[in-house]
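User: Fold this, then the next.

Assistant: Folding the first:
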Amino acid sequence: MNTKLWVCVIVGVLVAHLCVLVIVDNIRKPQKPAPQLVEPNFSVSTTTVSAPDGKVLKMEHEFTVETQFAKPEVLAKLPPPPAPYGAPPETIPAPAPAN
């Protein structure tokens, strides 16, 4: 037998063993639960303005999104937002000396 045939046989055996190991590993892994669906936090409304003859003159689509990034208790602890560009900076009182 020649060396090319031996190399093909060895590579085939290695690939077959790797396939079996991957299949066994996937079977052993615990299945992840399906993600829970999130209730949408937006609403859509459409307003249509029509002419007396029934022709649509204007159609307005309004999207309202209600998002809360942090809890109110956490927001109360944060410093105030910076002043808009060009506004004079507010004077910050010096910290009290440590006793």
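Now the next one, as you asked:
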Amino acid sequence: MNDQPPRLVGNRHWREFAASPLEALRRGARLDAMTRLPGVPDFQPRGLFRGTQAFFDAMDAEKERNRQLWFQKNAKRPD
């Protein structure tokens, strides 16, 4: 192909797992801020609910799955 070396894109020091609790807290805060951006749908069901703790845990898990699917479909990946 061509003789150019591969180009690094992004932060070469990035790690999949946070090295410290403070870094994990900062990453979580950035992700939370991303979910509040305009255009991200709110997957919270509307209305009043009564139920067991298991019911609400399942509702939260479904909301998180929907949010993850939305981000996977709509996140811009580098070319």
